[in-house]
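Dissemination and training. As part of the outreach component of the grant, students in the summer workshop were shown how a complex can be specified as a set of sequence lines and then modelled as a single object. The example used during the hands-on session is reproduced here so that future cohorts can follow it. Participants entered these lines:
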Amino acid sequence: MACKIIFDRPESMTETITHYCPGCTHGVIHRLVAEILDELGLRERAVGVAPVGCSVLAYNYFNCDFLEAAHGRAPAFATGLKRTRPDLIIFTYQGDGDLASIGIAEIIHAANRGEKFTTIFVNNAIYGMTGGQMAPTTLPGQVTTTSPFGRDVANVGYPMRMRELLSALRTPAYIARVAVHTPRHIIEAKKAVRKAFTYQNEGRCFSMVEFLSTCPTNWGMTPVEATQWVQDNMVPYFPLGELKTPEEEQDAD
Amino acid sequence: MAKVLLKGCEAIGEAAVRAGALRYFAYPITPQSEVAEYLVRRMPEVGGVFLQAESEVAASNMIFGAASTGERVFTTSSSPGISLMSEALSYIAAAELPCVFVNVVRNGPGLGGILPSQGDYLQATRGGGHGDYKLLVLAPSTVQETVEHIMLAFELADQYRNPIMVMADGLIGQMMEPVDFSAAPKPNPPDKSSWATTGAKGRKPHLIKTLFLSPQLGEEHNRKLAAKYDKMRANEVRYEAYNLDEPRKVVMVAFGTTARVCKTAVDALKKEGIEIGLFRPITLFPYPYKPLRDIAERNEMRHLLVVEMNMGQMIEDVRLATSDRKPITFYGRQGGIVPSPEEVVEEIRKLL
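and obtained this result:
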């Protein structure tokens, strides 16, 4: 009986071994994006925009054209690219410090203009690369190096829910939040990534998929503890699912 | 084609379109918002794109992204906006992408004012952003020359894969003058397919980045950039020597609008039989050190008068050029005040 390969590395990924920490879910998210680029046949038209943060080196792992933006500026960068070459498939890959803190103006305005690119937003509730500082998404009471007594919401406010914030804009968009801490969640997440890139490929709208991700190193947990922490702490504060689709009837006000 | 009467800002926009720059991202700021107001109508006529960004930070990063495709792209702004764009300028220079930035300089520091100034000389020539990078900086003195510089800037940007700055000022931006486009060269962009990020179809992926975690690679990249800037120093120095065919006792040094005022002062004194020279740097980087040194070292040359619309910035380069071997006097106006030819003449009389 002839053997058939049923699982392999996507063509959109390189063979480079990632620098990510054990238990970090960047690798899973990279793979989901790569699988969708393969399955939709987009790799040869794809240009990725890397952020500043742990995933700044994403371009070592994706087998497509890639650029490295300044911190937080990826949505402006992608706007320039897409407006110049609408035939290309553009995606930004950004962490929570990059997107929700230093780059919040750029993401809000790109979404509001309905820029036809896709944002992969990786929310792990902490700054990873700089060594575990408080992020706009750090949970109430969460201990980080700059909130050593736990995030005090009376002093620094509540964690920002970017899916909810961007979904409040009237401009049509596809905006969803997913997680990758269990196989079931990974399957659901892939569906959202497929939709996001499909909408872009059809020239429909801006699309963002927010991923709840782990950071065992800076959370001070084992990989298994970290996945449990996503389920117990992040999912209740950051509800999963689609919040906005371009099919929705727009308010006629 | 006959001359057309255009406002400086409109001429900037039209010159870019004729240079084949059909991607323009910008944020409004006085005294140059008319560039966007002109191009929002003009770009659709030529299949181009204008997008109003949410900030100068975003506009300059849109340029960064757009330039990576290899298309000719540009933005325009004025001093406070250029400060915000300096982050992107550092990145774009590091990433070696061609593009053009126009600074219609207004007075500063801070919010300053909306009137003409040359207070961004050091920002333009010394960096503004972080790290060891250089912009090639062109300083036009008339609307016509601004048009020519814009067109030249796109050629130089492509040639050197570097951001080029055209440094005008509020006077040039707001003034109407006759402009002749008939000598405009046909846009001649080189093939950029060896590096542009336009999709890895039938080739290996292209990567545009500025991060070098290895100290060896980081130094290597800086050496490569430095070699490019040296090439600019060797090949791109531009200046005008006015009434300097013979040695003069007093030579003025001025650029841009101020040089134009000084030229009027030279002509006025000539009528009285007093011969004064004017040295006008056209490239602020690379600065014409050697030609200025040669003029200053003439035995007959007794005094240099540096005139600027700032509190003394280019004078640092004049001192570098001449090694302080001849006395240098500075005359500057700020706050948006353009010096009159008469007051420049009075300054010269003090030195005679």
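The first strand of chain A starts at residue 46 and ends at 50. Students were then asked to discuss how this feature might be tested experimentally.
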